[in-house]
Amino acid sequence: MLGAGSWGTTYAKVLADAGRDVVLWARRESVAAGIRASRTNEAYLRGIVLPDNLYATSDVDEALDGVDAVALGVPSQSMRENLTVFRDSIPVGVPVISLAKGVEIGTGLRMSEVISRVGHIEEPRVVVLTGPNLAVEIAQNRPTASVLACVDHAIAVQVQKACATGYFRPYTITDVIGAEIAGTGKNVIALACGIADGLQLGLNTAASLMTRGLNELSRLGQALGADPATFAGLAGLGDLVATCSSPLSRNRTLGGRLAVGMGLDAAVAAAGGQVAEGVVSCRSMRDLAHRHGIDMPITEAVFNVCYRHMAPADMIRSLMDRPHTPE
Ligand SMILES: NC(=O)c1ccc[n+]([C@@H]2O[C@H](COP(=O)([O-])OP(=O)(O)OC[C@H]3O[C@@H](n4cnc5c(N)ncnc54)[C@H](O)[C@@H]3O)[C@@H](O)[C@H]2O)c1
Ligand SMILES: O=P(O)(O)OC[C@H](O)CO
């Protein structure tokens, strides 16, 4: 498991609880040493005791030596630079599981595309892990379902068998495009829901943003070749509901901070070094939508709040004032 943030550490624990011997790579030796010494990752997952069959290191070569599978749990915009370091040590032929939810700024590439191109990993080996997976709840062994998306169904099933536990139930799909567009876009919608919550607008507003948000993500996904059914499943609706509703979501929390007048830089800093991907994804998803001629009003509005100084209340008003259309 490459990346010892909150999700990387949690998924490493899932794999270890499923009976795998796991090596967790941390960028900082202090994090790896802390895990070895205390069996906890105090920087990212305070108080969660990690299993004995999970070993932590900051040495990439040691982490990747002889492994049967690799998982990548670094933020989306750092995936490219990290892969240039990782790629020579990733064993040939093993599945590579992407935990990151994002689309690369500038190139518009989804994470599986970055992994294939920069990591020199054949597409059928790349598996996307997504779904309603708030790390802290899973680390506390609270039950969740999840999704493993891979164009090669047999590889997804291998990974499914390797990581299923009593509290972690992964399903397989072959729609990688839908899984990644849904997983990236829901963080933007969660920012919008956080803004609405910060403005104390209530559940009708939240439900409206979630439903119309899912609609615009699905439109973009279908333009890129995704299966619309993916957006009605765990990777779409499931992840959207969890992230947009939970106070544990970093994206929703950040939206709430914007709503009460905090600037973007201060709100990002208040996340304490943990990534809220929606801040970048509102830009990269908007770019992708423009490139494909898809109207994504909520994504556009969140972008305007983050980068065009639009006031949060004006953001909601701009969505309500749009021309009336059939649903
Ligand atoms: N936390 C969750 O609940 C959750 C659940 C599902 C998916 N995800 C996704 O997983 C990915 C990782 O999320 P996370 O919650 O583990 O993030 P995090 O901020 O908690 O941790 C990120 C990890 O990546 C490492 N890293 C390596 N290179 C980096 C760089 N250049 N810049 C910053 N960090 C770098 C950090 O040291 C850290 O260990 C994100 O794309 C996120 O959207 C998170
Ligand atoms: O804490 P967030 O907002 O990054 O969301 C976490 C996960 O993506 C939920 O599935």
UniProtKB/TrEMBL annotation:
Catalyzes the reduction of the glycolytic intermediate dihydroxyacetone phosphate (DHAP) to sn-glycerol 3-phosphate (G3P), the key precursor for phospholipid synthesis. It holds the Pfam family NAD_Gly3P_dh_N. This is Glycerol-3-phosphate dehydrogenase [NAD(P)+]. It catalyses: sn-glycerol 3-phosphate + NADP(+) = dihydroxyacetone phosphate + NADPH + H(+); sn-glycerol 3-phosphate + NAD(+) = dihydroxyacetone phosphate + NADH + H(+). Sn-glycerol 3-phosphate binds at residues 101, 131, 186, 239, 249-251. SUPFAM superfamilies: 6-phosphogluconate dehydrogenase C-terminal domain-like, NAD(P)-binding Rossmann-fold domains. Substrate binds at residues 101, 250-251. NAD(+) binds at residues 3-8, 135, 250. InterPro entries: 6-PGluconate_DH-like_C_sf (IPR008927), 6PGD_dom2 (IPR013328), G3P_DH_NAD-dep (IPR006168), G3P_DH_NAD-dep_C (IPR006109), G3P_DH_NAD-dep_N (IPR011128), NAD(P)-bd_dom_sf (IPR036291). NADPH binds at residues 6-7, 27-28, 44, 101, 135, 250, 275, 277. It comes from Nakamurella panacisegetis. The gene is gpsA. The active site is at residue 186. Its EC number is 1.1.1.94. GO terms for biological process: carbohydrate metabolic process; glycerol-3-phosphate biosynthetic process; glycerol-3-phosphate catabolic process; glycerophospholipid metabolic process; phospholipid biosynthetic process. Belongs to the NAD-dependent glycerol-3-phosphate dehydrogenase family. PANTHER family: GLYCEROL-3-PHOSPHATE DEHYDROGENASE, GLYCEROL-3-PHOSPHATE DEHYDROGENASE [NAD(+)] 2, CHLOROPLASTIC.
